[in-house]
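Contributing new complexes? Match this layout with zinc ion.
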Amino acid sequence: MKLLAATVLFAAALAPAVPSAASGPSASRGRMDGCARPEARLRTGGQGQERNDLTSAQAATVELDLDQILDGLAQPLSGLTDGAGLRSAPRITVPVYFHVLHDGAKGDVSTTEIMRQISTMNASYGGHNGGANTRVSFALRGITRSDNAAWFQDPERYEGTYKPMLHKGGKGTLNIYSTYMGGDLLGWATFPWKYKTDPEMDGVTIHYGSMPGGSIEHFNKGFSATHEVGHWLGLYHTFQDGCSNKGDRVADTPAERDPSDGCPSGKDTCPSPGDDPIHNYMDYSYDTCMTSFTAGQGTRIHNVWKAYRA
Ligand SMILES: [Zn+2]
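Output block (do not edit by hand):
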């Protein structure tokens, strides 16, 4: 859910106020390897909203609800921002249903490629590339394949059609849809607190070219799925709230003013301590730049899981 503030960022990052001969269509085609991670450009209908980024006010509302739920639970972990609780958290194994949307020619990814994507997620969440072991893992339970050119070519438009038809399991089951989404978008996800009101829409959608070994330069190590699943587990972007307010509600991810582009070493955009977390899966850096979740993110995942997905 990316809202007005992020839309301003989107506009500022991508388009000059006055189009010139040098911008326009070629600038649009260049989006994939320029500016922010293409996910930011997905817009939902009306209000100029985009997904997976919240205004400070919206995040505050979500957190109020989350805190109230956690207060009502027995044996909560040691707080949303304290990574120390992670070591005592029970392991979470998430059952996964993988739905392949294709047009008969493109997008029909192989079972081997799907297994590689799941392995990549397990490596990411297990801390194998660096960072924390979040004690979350993923187990593939089933694959569906849909030969439907309309769904494949416009998965945003038909989301309300294919998801209710294909979705499996309950609030703790991850449904991943691989499809095509144009040249400037890598994926999107639903947040856990949305499950209750819209269970059949729950899940993660990724561009099939973002899977490990896929066709999208800089974004083909499979970390788009890692990132989107992070949202599905309740993580915000590391640039949530910019330098102000409460950020991403994770104490060990330094605040950053805006999304990272590429792999900008030494980027430090906020006065608070710490360089920007450019290597974090919840930033917008290239896949080749991403290595880690933090212990604080892992703890947040477990708290959010208890509140909304357990
Ligand atoms: Zn995101």
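Reviewers usually confirm one structural detail per submission. For this one: The chain has eight helices and five strands.
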